[in-house]
TrEMBL record:
The lineage of its organism: Bacteria, Bacillati, Actinomycetota, Actinomycetes, Kitasatosporales. Keywords: Membrane, Signal, Transmembrane, Transmembrane helix. It is a multi-pass membrane protein. This is DoxX family protein. The chain crosses the membrane at residues 67-88. It is found in: Membrane.
Amino acid sequence: MPRSERSPLLLAGLLAAAGVAHFAAPRPFDATIPRGLPGSPRTWTRVSGAAELALAAGVALPRTRRAAALATAAFFVGVFPANVKMALDWRHRPAPQKALAIGRLPLQVPLVLWARGVARNAEGRS
């Protein structure tokens, strides 16, 4: 299977794993929810987990891949404030945890680009 055919499936797998994690172990995700959002952090954790599962399904299916991949790119941009909150909250933790939290910030860029690339490669195949 060529790399371009594996890429959407890998992205779908990443989204699915993250979505399942939101339900299996929600507490760490709850802690990243910005305080300014209305409602409970657990609700936002569940909504974002469900969104990741839906995006995973959409990216996995060739028929919906382009739209789902574009929505995934937007989703990655939308959850960036949670990563910023985590980095700020973890700034006084031990170095490995602090490095993990800070390292997540620039990771959003390749994730957005990956999702856009999947969308671009799906354009001619829908």
